Amino acid sequence: MTLSLLHVHPATGTVAALTATGGVAVGGYVHHVWRGVGACATQGRVTHPWYPDGVRRALERGEDARGALARQVDADKGASLRQCLVMDARGRSALHSGADNLATVASCCYPGVAAAGNLLASAKVVEALAHAFVDTCCTNADAVRQGATPEYRDDYEATLLEGLIDALEVALAEGGDVRGTRSAALRIESFTQAPIDLRVDWCEGDIAGELRALARRVRAPAFADFLASLPRR
Q: In three state form, how does the secondary structure of 180-226 look?
């Protein structure tokens, strides 16, 4: 019962994920990102915490998103309860949405960016999330929505953190999780900076605003200098 977005930039290896839900502490359970490898969001009526391990191993062996996901689903007797979104290092996505997930179940997938959710206020939520992200990051957003390869803005990685939060805000305006959105998280991994991992584990007010406040603290000079001093590999 969750909303997620995955992003991979094939040329740089940068990977990002954003997740929001009506439950507590979504960042500890749903999204997993691996720079230069890909990403996975495991959610649904019952999340499967072991999917990411198998997905990562398959992606590291060179399997595409479809093959990596199929291995997990085929071995899972409870697959009808799962929703899992996978993206490989080339920005190709694959989705499994089991029949026993609770409506509304929806997805929206383009090269390098994909969104999926269940127990949503409407199918427009995932479309709004993916479209807002593409609009923020790409100079050819309309073409991407037709399946074209994204052309990223020159400063897109510098503003990726804020772009993820902006996209979440748009999705929440469409209704988000039908129960209300109470926790949210994002993670960015690249080869040019230390990982950024932000989590709001419970919020009964403006959850996008809470994430944005954390982002401002990350951008503050003292913490930004600390991140810049960390080893990059």
A: CCCEEEEEEECCCCCCEEEEECCCCCCHHHHHHHHHHHHHCHHHHHH
Taking alpha carbons only, the member of 12, 59, 10 closest to residue 32 is 59
**For 45-92, where are the E strands, in sequence order?**
82-88
Q: How does pLDDT run across 35-51, given as a tens digit for each residue?
A: 999 999 999 999 999 99
For 131, 151, 193, the CA distances from 143, given in Å and listed in that order, are 12, 9, 29
Span 15-24, pLDDT tens digits: 999 999 999 9
pTM for the predicted model, two decimal places: 0.97
Amino acid identity, position 101: N
d(CA 94, CA 72): 12
The residues facing 177 across adjacent strands are: 120
Q: What is the pLDDT of residue 232?
A: 77
Q: What pLDDT does 178 receive?
A: 87
Cα 104 from Cα 102, distance rounded (Å): 6
Q: How far apart are CA 170 and CA 3, in angstroms?
A: 13
Show the tokens assigned to 161. Answer: 């953190």
Angle at 100 between CA 79 and CA 173, to 5 degrees: 110
| Amino acid 176: pLDDT | 86
- Confidence label for 108 from pLDDT (cuts 50, 70 and 90): very high
CB 161 within 8 A of CB 137: no
